[in-house]
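Question (not urgent): is this output format expected?
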Amino acid sequence: MSGCGLFLRSAAAARSCRALVAFTASRRPLRTSPPSQAFAKELFLGKIEKKEVFPFPEVSQDELNEINQFVGPVEKFFTEEVDSQKIDREGKIPNETLEKLKSLGLFGMQVPEEYGGLGLSNTMYARLGEIISLDSSIAVTLAAHQAIGLKGIILAGSEEQKASGSDAASIRTRATLSEDKKHYILNGSKVWITNGGLASVFTVFAKTEVVDSNGSVKDKVTAFIVERDFGGVTSGKPEDKLGIRGSNTCEVHFENTRVPVGNVLGEVGGGFKVAMNILNSGRFSMGSAVAGMLKTLIEMTAEYACTRKQFNRNLSEFGLIQEKFALMAQKAYVMESMAYLTAGMLDQPGFPDCSIEAAMVKVFSSEAAWQCVSEALQVLGGSGYMRDYPYERILRDSRILLIFEGTNEILRMYIALTGLQHAGRILTARVKQLKQGNVTTILETVGQRLRDSLGRAVDLGLTGKLGVVHPSMASEGHQVPSPPCHGGEQPSLAAGPGHRGRAVLTGILPPAPQDSAHKLEQNVHYFSRTVETLLLRFGKTIVEEQLVLKRVANVLINLYGMTAVLSRASRSIRVGLQNHDHEVLLANIFCTEAYHQNLCTLSQLDKHSPENLDELIKKVSQQVLEKRAYVCAHPLDRPS
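Got this back:
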């Protein structure tokens, strides 16, 4: 689109998407669960805030009909008019496709109706994301436009700024206030900007000098709305990418670009907060988008497996092939459950803090996508590797999911540290007393650990007469397995269920596989014990313990996934949804696998765990990085 931005100004938007939004004037807010405050954070303290996640977010039939009115025309367009193979081959989304996307209102899905958008809730946005994901280049173009670019204006913009519109580009550069104090002068550049060559309006994050209350001058990030027409804005050539090849990605340069002071987004020096709010509120949608892609992939791959013969049998009859389909179905179900649970939280009034939940959805869904697409190609064999079929393109497109919107490594640090910081504020006095040798606190802690080691019932309110999980997902009367003790020592503060080598846990046997609710309760109980120990052991230096933090994040992601599927499956049973028994199967499989993964991970977080190989891993990496090469001698070498 030569010189034409992708944003929709209010009047144009109203005209272009009138057919789809005529009925939205009477839309009612989605009826979902109570307002979410800090569900994930409370897990660090051993609490399951049931009111935040049970029952599973629900919409009325009228609201469902409204969502389906959006789905129909969008699905028809993507299945009949979008040529994904051509987009990938030519590295460009055709102008006519972009215009059609505009006419459907898809560049303004979450823009309030009064500013010319569709005004969709997060739940509706997630539902459309399932369809838009049928073409990854288009999905990225639309997501960058509104989940990054427009989102900042919606969350932090003034009324005038919201009416102006925006487009996607996250830029870091320097902004200097002019002598007349009427403009900021921008200079700098940023690489890998999605839609950077197409946009005519940008959301820019630049360093500015800010005077603190004590009079000192510091560099802080400020967000700006920058129009290409301001001058001094140029774009580099589009990048030639591995995947999402049709999306426009390029470097954007600013040279003495004069930005009116009225175009500051939020407060001067408050850009980092704006950026975090943008990313935190947008990451959840990756879950529904990937789930939509995986559903289509499962259909295509299953058709192949049920018709392709090997050794006079259909591929679908072989156990190792069946295992792959069970994996794909399970991963799709979990990420879909996590995404819509988070969307329901975000749809509550007051902008609830779901930053950890959204980050967990992003990490889980992106990694599951890469795993499942790889497994699908294994089923497809040679066909999956050929450009004549869509599978290899899907594989290439999926790889970026682990990188953008915050790499999964960074997000794991964010997930763990945010939760630990919350727990630390609550447990500060207790941890301090333990460090100082307070006898009462020590005896209380030892007593708790002894009761855990003997195996005690854990009841966090998920089951029983007043429980929120359907009875078929839980059984009564199970106790906590005894935590492991290493080297004959007394149970440490990190003591939690786990395995030493290949030994079986002693003490009370774990519950039967169908007791998924009890598995979640037990994991949460021992997770909180481990959190307290880590705070006592590391204190503030835990920010440097990335391998520890990775394990903390992994446990939490599993706990949130378990919660989401239990809540969703319980609702499906109660309302009598079709194939709810299949949902129970998927939920129980995931909860069982996650439960045992968590046991192992919690065990590794014990200071004296023989399963913890962190020091050896650090030593190997140090030697490789010192040499900047593979260190071992060649197997054919001989001593000279």
